[in-house]
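Throughout our pipeline, every protein is held as a single compact record rather than as scattered files. Such a record has a labelled line for the sequence and another for the backbone structure tokens. This encoding replaces a full spatial description with a residue-level series of whole-number codes. For reference, a complete record is included directly beneath this paragraph.
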Amino acid sequence: MSKFFKYFEYGYLIVVVLFLFRAYNSWPAEPNQTYFSLFFVALALGMFFLKRHFRRKYEQNQSDK
């Protein structure tokens, strides 16, 4: 189960790359859409680090038992 969560974390990084690409392409035409995309970039990065932190904490608790 831990491997699944580990790969799921990297899905957030894929979302970051996709929204960065979208923000880069929409910058000159629609700046409001760019800010919206950058918000999701920040959100996905935060989720990546949060999930990684809790997965490592869970793995450490399982190894201590």
Observations:
- Residues 31-64 form the longest helix (34 residues).
- Helices lie at 2-26, 31-64.
- Residues 21 and 49 are 21 Å apart (CA to CA).
- The chain has a mean pLDDT of 92.
